[in-house]
Amino acid sequence: MPHITLRDGATLYFETHGAGPPLMLVTGLGGVATFWEPHVPAFARHFTVVLHDHRGCGRSALSRIDYSVEQMADDALQLMDALGVKRAHWVGHSTGGAMGQAIAIDHPARIDRLVLCGTWAKTDAFFRRGFELRAMVLRAFGPEGYSKASGLALHAPSWIRDHDDVLAANEARAHETIPVPDILLSRIAAIVAHDRREQMHRITAPTLAIGARDDQVTPAYFTEEIGRLVPDCRTVILPHGGHFFPNVVPDTYQRILLDFLFGKAASAT
To answer: How many other CB atoms are there within 10 angstroms of residue 240's CB atom?
Structure first.
């Protein structure tokens, strides 16, 4: 399996697909590249798609460090450096969107077009309380309890109704996907601490902020705020899909993103 070695000796799993301008697809708190499986074929027809498992997740090193969004962003920059990618489009979902903000603000030359999906510029009481609860569930009930509780937050009710077997399978392998709960707790603390609100005006990359109206993790008002804060930003709010809207309405999601990445108008219709 392809890995790079980070400057501190930890390893980062990555994949590349397709050919063309580089496109980083960066997942959320779960941290694994498999989130993007439904989308890789569509994007790989036009781009060199780069995926990775975050440090502490999946096939990357299970480093017991103090995690931060900036550290996660730096790991991704090290991956870009290792692959010889000086500048890339960045599509970041949730935590991946927070990472994209950090890079677009601190290293603007590295980002071409920026897509911020179901993400936030600064934590509020709703977000903080939601993740405080998820951390409490993980401590009290372990990975399986955390997986069960998270499934209710991440997915739209109608999706849960129709995919009970998928959620049950996820819960059954929770101890494999969350092998070191303390790492996940540190990653939760990292995203709760994320705050780039006062710096969002410094993002110069053309940006698409996209969310779903029924997202229970990062409500649509976070996406709307990003749209107001970033100077060159289009905002699209999908009518449904929950927090995992990219994989609930994949065809719509791909069309909107491809239109944006190729400089066309973005809309939810």
So the answer is: 15
Compute the C-alpha angle 77/117/242, nearest 5°.
Answer: 140
What would the pLDDT profile of 193-203 be if each residue is shown by its tens digit?
999 999 999 99
Phi, psi of 257 (to 5 degrees): -65, -45
Q: What's the average model confidence in pLDDT over 230-251?
A: 97
Position 169 in a domain:
no
Decide: 50 and 88 in contact? Cβ < 8 Å: yes
What is the tens place of the pLDDT at every residue in 59-74?
999 999 999 999 999 9
Q: How many other CB atoms sit within 10 Å of the CB of residue 262?
A: 9
CATH of the domain at 61: 3.40.50.1820
Residue 83 tokens read as: 């692959």
Q: Flag whether 149 is in a domain.
A: no
Residue 79 CB-density burial (10 A; 0-12 exposed, 13-18 middle, 19+ buried): buried
Domain count for the chain, please give it.
Answer: 1
Question: What SS3 class is residue 114?
Answer: strand
Give me the residue label for tokens 């299970």.
Answer: 62
The alpha-helical segments, DSSP class H, found in the chain are: 40-44, 69-82, 95-106, 125-154, 157-162, 164-172, 174-177, 181-193, 220-229, 245-248, 250-261
Range of the domain at 52: 3-121+196-261
The partner residues of 115 in beta bridges, in order of sequence, read 91, 208
Question: Residue 239 falls within a domain, yes or no?
Answer: yes
Q: Is residue 68 part of a domain?
A: yes
Phi, psi of 71 (to 5 degrees): -65, -45
- What confidence category does residue 266 fall into, taking pLDDT thresholds of 50, 70 and 90? very low
